């Protein structure tokens, strides 16, 4: 595929991703998705200061330098203050080509209780069985900082990116998703389809785990204990390995459905659509 066609396909899918994440409750007026430029890894793209559902054309997108999240074009319109989430993840991890940030309400119980979110079914094996790590922004604040929880500078973005790796100098992320204390979550993927899949099933997993724990609380065993340790039955280590492989293999199928859903919904406009064949 020629470079310009490849870029067009990625732009088209970035616009679709904005709509899909809104349609599936991962973002509302807040939250964002970005993609690394397919021909220039030192640049990433995301929409300007607007609700994701309203992104409609390449004119709505801003090009940023990975090095410092400055705009490639100094005359670019206003962008998201939390673009440093994206810039610092792209800077640290060369294999990451898509980043999503969300405040999905289903995930919020796991960023304010200390209860670990774990994969509870096969579709979310990428979350793992140990508990998704939680990033706490507070220790990174300095005197005079406005403690509004936003990851709005490179220092805070770098701190969040560090939570995706278990070793200080690792350049491959160990985590697919990191929760953010009193805020939400961020996730990464090698392409748009992978990251969107992970964001949607993170939200669904959180909802399922919460419901499971609520049911368990009201249905203890005859000794008053949970049937399963924490009130829910997380996947095993072996299932984690197997489902990670399986999930990677079948992400293109839901993408075709998700694209059709947003194409047929008059709320969403995509001047580069329609096309169901994902750019990967
Ligand atoms: Zn946020």
Automatic annotation (TrEMBL):
BP terms from Gene Ontology: pentose catabolic process
Q: Does the keyword NAD apply?
A: no
Which SMART domains does this UniProt record tie to the protein? Aldolase_II (SM01007)
* Chain ranges of the Class II aldolase/adducin N-terminal domain: 12-210
**Top-level taxon:** Eukaryota
Question: Looking at the Swiss-Prot or TrEMBL record, what is one Pfam family this protein matches?
Answer: Aldolase_II
Its Gene Ontology molecular function terms?
Answer: aldehyde-lyase activity; metal ion binding
User: What's in the keyword line of the UniProt record?
Assistant: Lyase, Metal-binding
InterPro entries assigned: Aldolase_class_II_sugar_metab (IPR050197), Aldolase_II/adducin_N (IPR001303), Aldolase_II/adducin_N_sf (IPR036409)
Listed under GO cellular component are: cytosol
Alphabetized PANTHER family for the sequence: 3-OXO-TETRONATE 4-PHOSPHATE DECARBOXYLASE-RELATED, FUCULOSE PHOSPHATE ALDOLASE
Query: Could you identify this protein by its name?
Result: Class II aldolase/adducin N-terminal domain-containing protein
Q: Which organism is it from?
A: Exophiala bonariae
């Amino acid at each position: 595929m020629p470079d310009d066609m490849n870029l067009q396909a990625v732009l088209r899918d970035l616009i679709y991703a904005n709509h899909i994440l809104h349609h599936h409750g991962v973002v509302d007026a807040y939250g964002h998705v970005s993609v690394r430029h397919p021909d220039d890894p030192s640049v990433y793209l995301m929409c300007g200061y607007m609700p994701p559902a309203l992104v409609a054309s390449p004119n709505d997108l801003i090009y940023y330098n990975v090095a410092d999240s400055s705009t490639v074009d100094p005359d670019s319109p206003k962008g998201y203050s939390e673009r440093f989430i994206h810039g610092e993840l792209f800077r640290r991890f060369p294999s990451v080509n898509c980043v999503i940030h969300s405040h999905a309400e289903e995930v919020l119980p796991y960023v304010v209780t200390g209860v670990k979110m774990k994969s509870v079914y096969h579709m979310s094996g990428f979350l793992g069985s140990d508990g998704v790590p939680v990033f706490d922004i507070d220790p990174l604040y300095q005197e005079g900082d406005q403690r509004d929880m936003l990851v709005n500078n490179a220092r805070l973005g770098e701190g969040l990116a560090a939570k995706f790796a278990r070793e200080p100098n690792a350049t491959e992320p160990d985590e697919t998703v990191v929760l953010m204390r009193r805020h939400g979550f961020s996730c990464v993927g090698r392409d748009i389809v992978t990251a969107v899949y992970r964001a949607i099933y993170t939200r669904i997993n959180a909802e399922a785990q919460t419901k499971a724990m609520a049911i368990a609380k009201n249905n203890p065993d005859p000794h008053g204990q949970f049937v399963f340790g924490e009130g829910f039955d997380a996947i095993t280590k072996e299932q984690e390995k197997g489902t990670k492989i399986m999930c990677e293999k079948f992400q293109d199928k839901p993408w075709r459905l998700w694209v059709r859903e947003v194409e047929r919904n008059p709320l969403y406009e995509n001047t580069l659509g329609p096309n169901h064949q994902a750019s990967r």
